[in-house]
Specification:
By secondary structure, the protein is mainly alpha-helical. It is built from 15 helices and 3 strands. It has one domain. Helices cover about 70% and strands about 5% of the residues. A 3-stranded antiparallel β-sheet has the order 1-2-3, covered by helices on one side. The two termini are about 35 Å apart.
Length: about 400
Amino acid sequence: MTTYYLLVGVTAALVVFGLIMVLSASAIVSIQNTDGASAYSIFISQAVFATIGAVALLIASRLPMRSWKALAFPILLVGVVLQVLVLFTGTAVNGNQNWLKVGPITVQPSEIIKLGLVLTGAVVLSKKRQHLHSFAHVVVPYLVPIVAVGVGAVALGHDLGTVLILGAIVAGVLFAAGIPLRWFAFAGVPFVAGVLWFVLSSANRLSRFDVWLGRDTDEFGTARQPIHGRYALADGGWLGVGLGQSREKWGLLSEPHNDFIFAIIGEELGLPGSLGVLALFAALALACYRLVTRTDDFFVRVATAGIMTWIIIQAVINIGAVINLLPVIGVPLPLVSSGGSALITTMFALGILLSFARSEPGCAEALSARPSAIRRTLAVLPGVGRRRRARS
């Protein structure tokens, strides 16, 4: 049961820690958004999303494996249809048209596509397991049309950050399926060419690269966010300025509760807090790795690798942008940053991993035996024992 409890513990720790940091980092933004009426509006929304995500995780953890095989294509289809609607009726945020407003609720369909590409990849490659030595069987139907349609729908919304995450997910799925490494070059060339076109055709993205390369250091222009992110980390020093005591969140650092929440973590909690976040993601990667290496089910191995790649690569891209190891791309820190669609979908994906972990030999039996073990423990207490004998 080690993998199961490790997944539960790390997920709970990241979500709770994320709620604490969102409360700290978003208070000033909430006051600005509500004209001073409330400092808790963003936190309350995030807490509601976390509750919905917890329910989704619990439901997902109880579904059998056959359910995920049956739901793979419907999940991807829903994600693609919603993403197409985004292109016509969606809302643009920072130049990316990737949001769909449904009344008071804002949905990001690309998060659903991430999960859909993982599950459909696991289903298709499992069925073609005996033919994966042939490049044609890898291309059709997974790369074309499934991946092409899913990634293409997001690319039309100009969301380069999500496109990179989707590319990483596909690479993780193919790698876990045992695809020869030389084939990655054939599949990667058009993807890299597309990413370069995205960058070179956008003045906004080119300016971000100028900032990353040090050619643009204008603190009042494009370089403002990454510069103040590093200011926050520098102010935190070894031990931080204290929880809730960030200075950069007072209108200096944009998106302190979202893309740059790691900068606030470093400022308020210092090096121990930053390393603690890295340790939690490392523990999550370890739990996923245990699932991949311990299972004999090809579907479980591929799907777990895809979800692990999704969460860990997204965390690397987010943290790398904050510490200037990578250019600012605009992806949230999984389970920690503010954002409903990302939080709910990621927790749902982790619920799938919990359902896989329950299928490990002896895990389901041990979990089902827990209530009887608790009753036996309570039976040794004098008061409980007497009541049980009186009832009998």
